[in-house]
Amino acid sequence: MVKDQEFLKSKASYCLDLAKKMGATDASVTVGHSISETVNFRNKSLEASDRSDGLALSIETYLGKRRSSISSSNLLDENIKTLIEKCFETTKITPEDEFNSLPDKNLLAKKISSLNLYDETRFENDKKIKYLKDLEESASTNNQIINTESSFTENKSNFILANSDGFCDGYKTSSFAASCVTVAKDENSMERDYEFSSKRHLSDIKQATDLGNKAAKQTIRKLSPKKIGSEKISIIFDKRISKGMLSVFASAISASAIARGTSFLRDKIDQQVFANSINVIDKPDIIKGMGSQNFDSEGVNSNTLQLIENGILKNYLVDTYNGKKLNLESNGRSGGTTNLYFEKGNISYEDLMKKNSRSLYITETIGHGSNIVTGDYSVGATGFLVEDGEFKYPVNEITIAGNFKDMFKNITLANDLEFEYSVNSPTMMIEGMTVAGK
Amino acid sequence: MSDFFNKSDLTRQDANKIVSETLNNCDDGELYLEESKSESILLDDNKIKSSNYSSDLGFGFRAISNEVVAYSYSNEISKDSLKNSSENLKSTLKSIKGTYNHEIPKSNKKFYEDINPIEQKTLDSKLQVLNKVNDFLRKKDGSVKQVTASFAGEQKSIEIIRSGGEALTDVRPLIRFNVSVMLEKNGRKETGVYGIGGRQSYDDYLKNDNWKNVCEEAFRIASVNLESKPAPAGEMKVVLGPGWPAILIHEAIGHGLEGDFNRKKTSAFHDLMGEKVASEGVTIVDDGTIDNRRGSLTIDDEGTPTERTVLIENGILKNFMQDRHNARLMNTRSTGSGRRENYRHIVLPRMRNTMMLSGNQTQDEMIKSVDKGIFAVSFGGGQVDITSGKFVFNCTEAYEINNGKIGSPIKGATLIGDGPSILKEVSMVGNDMMLDPGIGTCGKAGQGVPVGVAQPSILIDKMTVGGTKL
Known about the structure:
The complex is a heterodimer.
Chain A: H1 5-22, E1 26-42, E2 45-63, E3 66-72, H2 77-93, H3 125-139, E4 145-163, E5 168-169, E6 172-185, E7 190-199, H4 208-220, E8 231-237, H5 239-252, H6 255-260, E9 280-282, E10 305-309, E11 312-313, H7 320-326, E12 340-342, H8 349-354, E13 358-366, E14 376-387, E15 390-403, H9 404-409, E16 411-413, E17 423-424, E18 428-436
Parallel strand pairs in A: 8-13, 12-17
Antiparallel strand pairs in A: 1-2, 1-4, 2-3, 4-5, 4-6, 6-7, 8-18, 9-10, 9-12, 10-11, 13-14, 14-15, 15-18, 16-18
Chain B: H1 12-23, E1 28-44, E2 47-65, E3 68-74, H2 79-92, H3 117-120, H4 123-140, E4 144-161, E5 167-185, E6 188-198, H5 202-206, H6 210-226, E7 233-240, H7 247-254, H8 259-263, E8 284-287, E9 308-313, E10 316-317, H9 324-329, E11 338-339, E12 348-349, E13 353-356, H10 363-368, E14 372-384, E15 390-402, E16 405-410, E17 414-418, H11 419-422, E18 426-429, E19 434-435, E20 440-444, E21 447-455, E22 458-466
Parallel strand pairs in B: 7-14, 13-21
Antiparallel strand pairs in B: 1-2, 1-4, 2-3, 4-5, 5-6, 7-22, 8-9, 8-13, 9-10, 11-12, 14-15, 15-16, 15-17, 17-22, 18-22, 19-21, 20-21
């Protein structure tokens, strides 16, 4: 069983009391406990089981404008005492920083509403095994599939965040995740693809057979890929890749990147940065949302933010420290975005596919080719050549490149948005990018 | 050395008894105990931005029978907690019986000292170095707009207890010092990053004001990039510089030669043992035994002493990298490559220091032989798709080559290639093998472990460069 609120609260207040007693002017502490159980299958039989049970503690102590932090997994009172002593000794010799402080009291979350983020259902390992058997059975019906690997993870967590201004709150969350990786082989090639489902509640997890079938289908269609020539071509990003554009955008508008001057979106507030049909929203209060939260990692209340309105940048993602630096109030985004999404576009997936007589559909990218400072983008890619709205043949060993400043202004979104993950996007088309191949 | 048995009600005798009783009917397994202390100190935007100290303690208990691995970890080292884990393992493996293999090789060689680098340098003197870095770079040139510098240090103590009570221990220091600088000129911004590190004390790396060299190198890379032009797009010849660019070897070849992917036949290399996979003259080893290197280990995380494993010899595939589990199932021996990020994770076969050995040509000869291509000197990260064999890595410093001469710097671009065939495209191997500066972290299945790479300059006849200029 995951530790209850009372246990975590008692550890948190022990830490705060001790820090105060040693002379800290302020302190904040997070105590968390998490239990997860995973079962792994391979080629229709049990491969591994894994159980983890972990406590975690992190403390920040302040002496005026000086601050330092410690973290530990050892919650014995004696160890905590030694660590807080060490933390406070470090704080004393750390230089002052005028922007160091706890969040403004009036911004702290006051009322915690239930977002239904915890499902207490226990999915026993025998049931996980049954699910994975069904999944791999349906993933391996085609004899081109030569290897299947799948896993089911169940996680239950609880935490308390407390600070010396009296904030003390936390809540339980759960997650269930099933995934499947399949390998297919033909005379020319061997390819891998995957499918997964991750939810707060067990009953929302995709059917095992659907997951297996989809993974297999997505893998087999990649067999015998060709390399295409280097050219400018319009690129269609599958949903699982288009959401990555949002993650890049989020890191470029984090208050820390803005304050440090290391973002290509610095000083772009109230300016056009996306095509004018584009709206981007970050919504923390979606019921059962994978990214939902009542408050951010500092206890600050988080409300829905319209980040992009008709293509115009409206908000940064602001935490207390960088907010003070930029002279902005925290908007509860210490720890980043919550449930981030592009509003759906007004063209169907089919019409998007047919918009150009020839385009490239990308299903996977590899490499870390996003530069937040310059906006340059260059990654390895796998996908399909599309002609007249149809997949013609699979393509690999190519790269796609551009600059986000141009790419964002040339985005067209389909109307197929679904809320599956904490970051969600419809299928996306970007025109004017460069493909490097043969 | 940590004493794991003075922390709670769990005695060594209890632990031995529970371990032996749990693993009695299994093929392999062990109790892995770990205590780590780590610090990170960051200077950013003219200030000491954070100073964090962390201590972590826990165990991971593993039982293996046939192909099934049962694993349970906890950060509470106590009799109850270990008994719970034991029950957990037994319930997973209830219907599968094995025969415990007690054999584990021994060695008394050590590749680093039992030190705690965090305690060997005072916090105050670390803060002073970071402030000096900041002042030095900002005074150096008006174009410097941002400086980030950091120290990261760690001491990890481990003890492995096998069935029958055999205990193996190791104490591993690790440090890293890193500088990143952003320049701005005529509205253009570029960054340069450089770092150093390994398994010694901070001062072993920082003596003689060596921090200045790190600053100069980060500044030089950023300055080069301020002048960079769009990179070309398409297939061309590529000359790789010595040292860190060997992450190409790590991504393109290394991961594909890890035992697990080959046992499962999901690696593009699984049926190529004994075959020619590289040009003649190409020899690649994975070596855990180089003194004080970031990827070196006295024993791996299963207790096997590490070694120098020949992967490819003169173009022929000779060995895969193995942990005990995959080695047993493939009827071979562990190469001391079983590693885990920490007690929260299962052991996987991983790389240590992966190196292509020197040949006898010069970098000059390579550049002169290229009509049109690029010269890649420094890289960011890389990634590979094991199954299709396709891999990428990102240039952070590269130049055009035109008619045998190095031309303008080009913008960061991704290079993509095919692992099983790329080494056949190597047409020249340099005489200038160099180790990387000690900064690599390899990710696999969500676990990061410190690794090293090395190579001489090499010429690759055909690779796709992912620029924007057609």
